[in-house]
Write a structure and sequence with these properties.
Elements (H helix, E strand, L loop, with lengths): L10 E8 L2 E6 L3 E10 L2 E3 L9 E10 L2 E6 L1
Parallel strand pairs: 1-5, 2-6, 3-5, 4-6
Amino acid sequence: FENTENYQGGGTLNLENNMGSLLVNIPSDWHVIANLENNMGSIKLPSTGNPTGKTIILTGENNMGSVTVEFV
């Protein structure tokens, strides 16, 4: 993400992963709402981040792959 200081929150990031490995870096002061479907794969979301921070919604599918969300 670029220019995160200008982000107002409430955006949606659509993820589609098929048999791959996907790493999503989220600013540490944001809050994540994950609406991801997982089919025979792995989704690693260690926490939802800062509950009072700017919100981002992750939607989409993971099919036989690996999705990792990290806070940076």
